[in-house]
Specification:
With about 325 residues, the protein is of the alpha/beta class. It folds into two domains: about 210 residues, Rossmann fold (3-Layer(aba) Sandwich); about 90 residues, 3-Layer(aba) Sandwich (Rossmann fold), CATH 3.40.50. The strands form two sheets. It has a six-stranded mixed beta sheet with strand order 1-2-10-7-8-9, with helices on both faces. Strands 5-4-3-6 form a four-stranded parallel beta sheet, with helices on both faces. Helix 5 links the parallel strand 4 and strand 5. The longest helix has 18 residues.
Length: about 325
Protein backbone atom coordinates (compact mmCIF):
# COMPACT_ATOMS: atom_id res chain seq x y z
CA UNK A 1 0.00 0.00 0.00
CA UNK A 2 1.12 3.61 -0.50
CA UNK A 3 3.49 5.12 2.00
CA UNK A 4 2.46 7.88 4.39
CA UNK A 5 5.88 9.51 3.89
CA UNK A 6 6.16 10.31 0.17
CA UNK A 7 9.60 9.86 -1.40
CA UNK A 8 9.98 11.13 -4.97
CA UNK A 9 10.68 8.92 -7.95
CA UNK A 10 13.90 10.07 -9.61
CA UNK A 11 15.13 9.55 -13.19
CA UNK A 12 17.56 6.92 -11.90
CA UNK A 13 14.57 4.94 -10.57
CA UNK A 14 12.95 5.18 -13.99
CA UNK A 15 16.07 3.84 -15.72
CA UNK A 16 16.17 0.94 -13.26
CA UNK A 17 12.51 0.18 -13.95
CA UNK A 18 13.13 0.37 -17.70
CA UNK A 19 15.95 -2.15 -17.48
CA UNK A 20 13.79 -4.41 -15.30
CA UNK A 21 10.74 -4.52 -17.60
CA UNK A 22 12.12 -3.82 -21.07
CA UNK A 23 11.75 -7.44 -22.21
CA UNK A 24 8.22 -7.63 -20.81
CA UNK A 25 6.57 -4.61 -22.47
CA UNK A 26 6.17 -3.30 -26.00
CA UNK A 27 7.85 -0.23 -27.40
CA UNK A 28 4.64 1.50 -28.46
CA UNK A 29 4.60 3.65 -31.59
CA UNK A 30 4.46 7.40 -31.91
CA UNK A 31 2.46 8.76 -34.85
CA UNK A 32 2.41 12.26 -36.29
CA UNK A 33 -1.19 12.59 -37.49
CA UNK A 34 -2.68 14.73 -40.22
CA UNK A 35 -3.45 17.56 -37.88
CA UNK A 36 -5.93 19.15 -40.29
CA UNK A 37 -8.10 16.04 -39.93
CA UNK A 38 -8.10 16.49 -36.16
CA UNK A 39 -8.62 20.24 -36.36
CA UNK A 40 -5.37 20.85 -34.49
CA UNK A 41 -2.17 22.77 -35.28
CA UNK A 42 1.08 21.14 -36.45
CA UNK A 43 3.85 19.76 -34.30
CA UNK A 44 1.69 17.04 -32.76
CA UNK A 45 2.73 13.50 -31.81
CA UNK A 46 0.48 10.79 -30.38
CA UNK A 47 2.13 8.19 -28.15
CA UNK A 48 -0.06 5.12 -28.73
CA UNK A 49 0.15 3.34 -25.41
CA UNK A 50 -3.27 1.99 -26.36
CA UNK A 51 -1.24 -0.61 -28.30
CA UNK A 52 0.62 -1.80 -25.21
CA UNK A 53 -0.02 -5.36 -23.97
CA UNK A 54 -3.62 -5.57 -22.68
CA UNK A 55 -4.49 -2.23 -24.33
CA UNK A 56 -3.09 0.34 -21.90
CA UNK A 57 0.07 1.62 -20.22
CA UNK A 58 -0.72 -0.33 -17.05
CA UNK A 59 1.56 -3.38 -17.60
CA UNK A 60 4.58 -1.10 -17.14
CA UNK A 61 3.78 -0.33 -13.52
CA UNK A 62 2.40 -3.79 -12.80
CA UNK A 63 5.49 -5.60 -14.09
CA UNK A 64 7.81 -3.24 -12.25
CA UNK A 65 5.90 -3.67 -9.00
CA UNK A 66 5.87 -7.47 -9.11
CA UNK A 67 9.40 -7.91 -10.46
CA UNK A 68 10.71 -5.62 -7.71
CA UNK A 69 9.74 -8.33 -5.19
CA UNK A 70 12.11 -11.32 -4.96
CA UNK A 71 10.43 -14.46 -6.29
CA UNK A 72 10.51 -16.35 -2.97
CA UNK A 73 8.63 -13.47 -1.33
CA UNK A 74 5.58 -13.82 -3.58
CA UNK A 75 2.94 -15.53 -1.39
CA UNK A 76 1.08 -18.71 -2.45
CA UNK A 77 -2.10 -16.67 -2.89
CA UNK A 78 -0.29 -14.75 -5.63
CA UNK A 79 -1.15 -11.17 -6.48
CA UNK A 80 -4.27 -9.08 -6.22
CA UNK A 81 -5.46 -5.68 -7.40
CA UNK A 82 -8.46 -3.39 -7.57
CA UNK A 83 -9.21 -1.95 -10.98
CA UNK A 84 -11.74 -0.25 -13.20
CA UNK A 85 -10.50 -2.66 -15.82
CA UNK A 86 -7.16 -1.67 -17.34
CA UNK A 87 -5.03 -2.28 -14.26
CA UNK A 88 -6.83 -5.56 -13.67
CA UNK A 89 -6.04 -6.64 -17.21
CA UNK A 90 -2.40 -5.70 -16.66
CA UNK A 91 -2.09 -7.57 -13.37
CA UNK A 92 -3.80 -10.63 -14.85
CA UNK A 93 -1.36 -10.47 -17.79
CA UNK A 94 1.61 -10.18 -15.41
CA UNK A 95 0.35 -13.12 -13.36
CA UNK A 96 -0.02 -15.31 -16.43
CA UNK A 97 3.41 -14.29 -17.74
CA UNK A 98 5.08 -15.06 -14.39
CA UNK A 99 3.06 -18.15 -13.47
CA UNK A 100 1.25 -16.57 -10.51
CA UNK A 101 -2.33 -16.64 -9.22
CA UNK A 102 -4.30 -13.38 -9.52
CA UNK A 103 -7.51 -12.12 -7.93
CA UNK A 104 -8.92 -8.90 -9.38
CA UNK A 105 -11.60 -6.73 -7.72
CA UNK A 106 -13.56 -4.55 -10.13
CA UNK A 107 -16.38 -2.03 -9.61
CA UNK A 108 -19.83 -2.35 -11.11
CA UNK A 109 -19.09 0.49 -13.59
CA UNK A 110 -16.44 -1.59 -15.37
CA UNK A 111 -17.50 -2.54 -18.90
CA UNK A 112 -18.32 -6.19 -19.52
CA UNK A 113 -15.61 -6.38 -22.20
CA UNK A 114 -12.96 -5.67 -19.56
CA UNK A 115 -14.37 -8.14 -17.05
CA UNK A 116 -14.44 -10.87 -19.68
CA UNK A 117 -10.89 -10.21 -20.81
CA UNK A 118 -9.55 -10.28 -17.23
CA UNK A 119 -11.18 -13.68 -16.70
CA UNK A 120 -9.89 -14.91 -20.06
CA UNK A 121 -6.34 -14.15 -18.87
CA UNK A 122 -6.86 -16.66 -16.05
CA UNK A 123 -7.53 -14.34 -13.11
CA UNK A 124 -10.34 -14.69 -10.59
CA UNK A 125 -12.67 -11.70 -10.99
CA UNK A 126 -14.74 -10.36 -8.10
CA UNK A 127 -17.13 -7.40 -8.21
CA UNK A 128 -16.29 -5.14 -5.27
CA UNK A 129 -18.92 -2.41 -5.10
CA UNK A 130 -20.24 0.42 -7.23
CA UNK A 131 -17.09 2.46 -7.91
CA UNK A 132 -13.33 2.00 -7.98
CA UNK A 133 -12.76 3.00 -4.33
CA UNK A 134 -15.27 0.35 -3.22
CA UNK A 135 -13.35 -2.29 -5.14
CA UNK A 136 -10.09 -1.04 -3.61
CA UNK A 137 -11.51 -1.46 -0.11
CA UNK A 138 -12.51 -5.06 -0.91
CA UNK A 139 -9.06 -5.73 -2.36
CA UNK A 140 -7.39 -4.34 0.77
CA UNK A 141 -9.45 -6.68 2.94
CA UNK A 142 -8.62 -9.67 0.74
CA UNK A 143 -4.89 -8.92 0.81
CA UNK A 144 -4.95 -8.54 4.58
CA UNK A 145 -6.84 -11.80 5.07
CA UNK A 146 -4.90 -13.97 2.62
CA UNK A 147 -1.43 -12.41 2.43
CA UNK A 148 -1.74 -11.90 -1.34
CA UNK A 149 0.68 -9.31 -2.75
CA UNK A 150 -1.34 -6.20 -3.57
CA UNK A 151 -0.33 -4.42 -6.77
CA UNK A 152 -1.58 -0.86 -6.46
CA UNK A 153 -2.74 0.78 -9.71
CA UNK A 154 -1.18 4.20 -9.20
CA UNK A 155 0.16 5.08 -5.77
CA UNK A 156 3.40 3.24 -5.06
CA UNK A 157 6.85 4.28 -6.20
CA UNK A 158 7.34 1.06 -8.15
CA UNK A 159 4.09 1.70 -10.03
CA UNK A 160 5.01 5.32 -10.76
CA UNK A 161 8.53 4.40 -11.89
CA UNK A 162 7.12 1.70 -14.15
CA UNK A 163 4.64 4.10 -15.76
CA UNK A 164 7.46 6.63 -16.18
CA UNK A 165 9.24 4.28 -18.58
CA UNK A 166 6.67 5.45 -21.14
CA UNK A 167 8.15 8.95 -20.93
CA UNK A 168 11.73 7.68 -21.15
CA UNK A 169 10.73 5.72 -24.25
CA UNK A 170 8.96 8.74 -25.74
CA UNK A 171 12.08 10.87 -25.39
CA UNK A 172 14.05 8.27 -27.30
CA UNK A 173 11.50 8.44 -30.12
CA UNK A 174 10.97 12.19 -30.59
CA UNK A 175 13.38 13.93 -28.22
CA UNK A 176 12.14 16.18 -25.42
CA UNK A 177 8.79 17.71 -26.40
CA UNK A 178 7.88 21.23 -25.38
CA UNK A 179 4.65 20.02 -23.80
CA UNK A 180 3.09 16.70 -22.82
CA UNK A 181 -0.68 16.31 -22.40
CA UNK A 182 -1.52 13.39 -20.11
CA UNK A 183 -4.81 12.15 -18.66
CA UNK A 184 -5.21 11.63 -14.92
CA UNK A 185 -7.16 9.00 -13.00
CA UNK A 186 -5.39 8.26 -9.72
CA UNK A 187 -2.28 10.10 -10.91
CA UNK A 188 0.31 7.34 -11.42
CA UNK A 189 0.89 7.94 -15.15
CA UNK A 190 1.08 11.72 -14.82
CA UNK A 191 3.40 11.34 -11.82
CA UNK A 192 5.62 9.09 -13.92
CA UNK A 193 5.72 11.65 -16.72
CA UNK A 194 6.68 14.29 -14.14
CA UNK A 195 9.36 12.02 -12.65
CA UNK A 196 11.08 11.73 -16.02
CA UNK A 197 10.34 15.04 -17.77
CA UNK A 198 9.88 17.35 -14.76
CA UNK A 199 11.68 20.66 -15.29
CA UNK A 200 12.43 19.89 -18.95
CA UNK A 201 8.98 20.11 -20.53
CA UNK A 202 5.57 21.58 -19.74
CA UNK A 203 3.26 19.03 -18.16
CA UNK A 204 -0.44 19.57 -18.82
CA UNK A 205 -2.80 17.24 -16.98
CA UNK A 206 -6.30 16.58 -18.33
CA UNK A 207 -9.26 15.14 -16.45
CA UNK A 208 -12.99 14.73 -17.11
CA UNK A 209 -15.04 17.47 -15.52
CA UNK A 210 -17.07 14.75 -13.80
CA UNK A 211 -14.06 13.10 -12.08
CA UNK A 212 -11.22 15.52 -11.50
CA UNK A 213 -9.40 14.48 -8.33
CA UNK A 214 -6.02 16.03 -9.21
CA UNK A 215 -7.59 19.32 -10.27
CA UNK A 216 -9.36 19.48 -6.91
CA UNK A 217 -6.22 18.51 -4.99
CA UNK A 218 -4.10 21.17 -6.66
CA UNK A 219 -6.73 23.77 -5.77
CA UNK A 220 -6.93 22.56 -2.15
CA UNK A 221 -3.20 21.98 -1.70
CA UNK A 222 -3.79 18.35 -0.68
CA UNK A 223 -5.63 15.26 -1.91
CA UNK A 224 -9.37 15.59 -1.35
CA UNK A 225 -12.29 13.30 -2.27
CA UNK A 226 -14.39 14.21 -5.31
CA UNK A 227 -17.59 12.84 -6.85
CA UNK A 228 -17.05 10.46 -9.77
CA UNK A 229 -19.24 9.95 -12.84
CA UNK A 230 -19.15 10.29 -16.60
CA UNK A 231 -18.01 8.42 -19.69
CA UNK A 232 -14.45 7.77 -18.47
CA UNK A 233 -15.29 6.74 -14.89
CA UNK A 234 -14.14 3.16 -15.44
CA UNK A 235 -10.53 4.20 -16.16
CA UNK A 236 -10.22 7.73 -14.74
CA UNK A 237 -12.58 7.35 -11.81
CA UNK A 238 -10.46 7.60 -8.65
CA UNK A 239 -12.29 9.51 -5.92
CA UNK A 240 -9.01 10.93 -4.59
CA UNK A 241 -5.61 11.38 -6.19
CA UNK A 242 -2.88 9.20 -4.70
CA UNK A 243 -0.72 10.76 -2.00
CA UNK A 244 2.56 9.73 -3.66
CA UNK A 245 1.30 10.83 -7.07
CA UNK A 246 0.21 14.19 -5.67
CA UNK A 247 3.56 14.72 -3.97
CA UNK A 248 5.31 14.00 -7.29
CA UNK A 249 2.97 16.27 -9.29
CA UNK A 250 2.54 19.19 -6.90
CA UNK A 251 4.71 21.98 -8.28
CA UNK A 252 5.43 20.05 -11.50
CA UNK A 253 2.08 20.53 -13.25
CA UNK A 254 2.17 23.60 -15.48
CA UNK A 255 -1.52 23.48 -16.30
CA UNK A 256 -4.40 21.40 -14.92
CA UNK A 257 -7.38 21.17 -17.27
CA UNK A 258 -10.80 19.53 -17.20
CA UNK A 259 -12.85 18.55 -20.24
CA UNK A 260 -16.55 17.75 -20.66
CA UNK A 261 -17.76 14.30 -21.65
CA UNK A 262 -18.86 15.56 -25.06
CA UNK A 263 -15.29 16.63 -25.88
CA UNK A 264 -13.97 13.22 -24.82
CA UNK A 265 -16.53 11.43 -26.99
CA UNK A 266 -15.67 13.67 -29.96
CA UNK A 267 -11.92 13.03 -29.57
CA UNK A 268 -12.66 9.30 -29.37
CA UNK A 269 -14.74 9.54 -32.57
CA UNK A 270 -12.07 11.58 -34.40
CA UNK A 271 -9.33 9.11 -33.58
CA UNK A 272 -11.43 6.32 -35.05
CA UNK A 273 -12.90 8.12 -38.05
CA UNK A 274 -9.74 9.93 -39.15
CA UNK A 275 -6.93 7.63 -37.97
CA UNK A 276 -8.69 4.29 -37.41
CA UNK A 277 -7.32 4.24 -33.87
CA UNK A 278 -9.66 2.59 -31.36
CA UNK A 279 -9.47 4.13 -27.90
CA UNK A 280 -11.64 4.15 -24.82
CA UNK A 281 -12.91 7.43 -23.35
CA UNK A 282 -10.03 7.61 -20.87
CA UNK A 283 -7.58 7.12 -23.73
CA UNK A 284 -9.10 10.05 -25.62
CA UNK A 285 -9.24 12.42 -22.66
CA UNK A 286 -5.83 14.07 -23.08
CA UNK A 287 -6.43 14.66 -26.79
CA UNK A 288 -9.90 16.06 -25.98
CA UNK A 289 -8.26 19.10 -24.41
CA UNK A 290 -6.71 19.86 -27.80
CA UNK A 291 -9.50 18.88 -30.20
CA UNK A 292 -12.06 20.54 -27.92
CA UNK A 293 -10.20 23.86 -27.97
CA UNK A 294 -9.57 23.81 -24.22
CA UNK A 295 -5.81 23.68 -24.70
CA UNK A 296 -4.46 25.94 -27.45
CA UNK A 297 -0.93 25.19 -28.55
CA UNK A 298 1.55 27.95 -29.18
CA UNK A 299 3.14 28.63 -32.59
CA UNK A 300 5.95 26.14 -33.20
CA UNK A 301 5.15 24.13 -30.07
CA UNK A 302 6.22 20.48 -30.14
CA UNK A 303 3.33 18.75 -28.44
CA UNK A 304 3.07 15.11 -27.34
CA UNK A 305 -0.26 13.56 -26.31
CA UNK A 306 -0.39 10.28 -24.40
CA UNK A 307 -3.13 8.04 -25.79
CA UNK A 308 -3.24 5.84 -22.73
CA UNK A 309 -5.92 3.21 -23.29
CA UNK A 310 -7.62 1.36 -26.14
CA UNK A 311 -10.03 -1.00 -24.39
CA UNK A 312 -13.23 0.06 -26.11
CA UNK A 313 -15.89 -2.02 -27.78
CA UNK A 314 -15.36 -1.07 -31.46
CA UNK A 315 -19.10 -1.39 -32.14
CA UNK A 316 -19.68 1.68 -29.95
CA UNK A 317 -17.50 3.82 -32.23
CA UNK A 318 -19.40 3.27 -35.48
Amino acid sequence: MPSDDPVPVFPADVRTAFDRIRTRVRVTPVVEPDTAALGTPGGLWLKLESLQHTGSFKPRGAFNSVLSVPGPDIPPEGITAASGGNHGLAVAHVARALGLRATIFIPEVSPAVKRERIAALGATVRVGGALYDDAQAECDRFASATGALEVHPYDTNTTIAGQATLALELEGQIGVPDTVLVAVGGGGLAAGVAAWFGGRTRIVTVEPESSACLHAALAAGRPVPVPVSGVAADSLGARQVGSLAFAQLNGQVDLSLTVPDRAIAEAQRLLFSELRIVVEPGGATALAALTGGIYRSRPGERLAVIVCGGNADPSTLA
